[in-house]
Specification:
The protein is α/β, with parallel strands linked by helices. It has helices spanning 24-38, 43-50, 54-61, 69-79, 84-93, 102-108, 129-139, 145-157, 176-180, 186-199, 250-266, 270-285, and strands at 113-118, 169-175, 205-210, 224-228, 235-240, 243-247. Helix content is 47%, strand content 12%. The protein is elongated, with a radius of gyration of 21 Å.
């Protein structure tokens, strides 16, 4: 469970953003706030009723964090809404993106630079349709075919950031394991590697491969993403088995940037990286 003390605030619900542009977490938070005000309750009162601090209530209402099931149940109890907010939270979890991923997604669209390091899978923003489908089928064994296709479509929509007038600069470091781990089939992998070669021709994309021979060049052995902005502080995104988390403390972000510098220095140069991808592509097509 996220608490108000885990990290300093990293995103905010823009007061000028029209409701139709809210992501699901922002919509949930807006509805909590509207009902709370309608019941003449303060954030402190709602927090006491739900078992949380007023700061946590504020973060939920502004769409910064996903509400816990306990908080949603507490809202229904305090408001007398008979399971309304618990149901809304379940629908968010059943959506195209995991609810814990939405704060990151909102920031990715605004970033001027995206620095990503992946250790097992090709980074999501440059996955092909077939590759993403294979990943989602394994990750969501109980999902319907329609549900899988919705998730695939949502992942492919992330590419739209590169169609902006001022697209972000993407620097992707993929461990060699990402390229050798067969996801789906050899045909799927061939299509994925072919797409990486195409993406790498863009002036907005730099692609490097971390070879097995490099060993462990940095303290971080897990995937992470750093987002930089033209007018906001840099943030770090990490994931665990139970979800994702944004970090914006200067010490944490600086450590991640130091690691990224080491990873770039030990990875193959872009030309050598592309040569390795081409060789692996030939193997998959053999």
């Amino acid at each position: 469970m996220l608490t108000a003390t885990t990290e300093r605030e990293v995103t905010a619900l823009d007061e000028t953003t029209p409701p139709e542009h809210f992501n699901p977490l922002q919509s949930f938070g807006r509805d909590v706030k509207r009902v709370r005000l309608g019941r003449n309750l303060t954030q402190k009162h709602l927090g006491q009723a739900a078992g949380y601090s007023y700061a946590y209530v504020s973060m939920v209402e502004s769409g910064k964090v996903k509400a816990s099931e306990k908080f949603a149940d507490g809202c229904d109890l305090a408001f007398g809404t008979n399971g309304l907010f618990a149901g809304m939270l379940r629908r968010i979890d059943e959506g195209d993106h995991p609810s814990w991923f939405l704060p990151y997604l909102n920031l990715e669209r605004k970033a001027s630079r995206i620095l990503t390091y992946e250790t097992n899978l090709v980074t999501g923003i440059v996955q092909t349709e077939d590759y993403a489908r294979a990943v989602f089928r394994v990750a969501n064994p109980g999902a319907s075919a329609e549900g899988i296709e919705d998730k695939v479509a949502a992942r492919l929509r992330r590419r739209e950031v590169f169609e902006q007038d001022a697209p972000p600069r993407l620097w992707a470091i993929l461990h060699e394991a990402c390229l050798r781990t067969v996801v789906g089939s050899a045909e799927v992998m061939a299509g994925q590697l072919d797409y990486l070669l195409a993406v790498a021709t863009s002036p907005h994309v730099a692609l490097q491969v971390m070879p097995f021979s490099a060993g462990i060049p940095a303290t971080s052995t897990m995937p992470f993403i750093v987002l930089r902005f033209s007018d906001s502080p840099t943030v770090l995104y990490t994931e665990t088995r139970v979800g994702g988390r944004m970090h914006d403390s200067a010490q944490t972000v600086d450590a991640a940037l130091d690691d990224y510098d080491l990873l770039r220095a030990h990875a193959l140069a872009p030309d050598q990286s592309l040569a390795l991808i081409k060789n692996l592509l030939k193997e998959y097509r053999a």
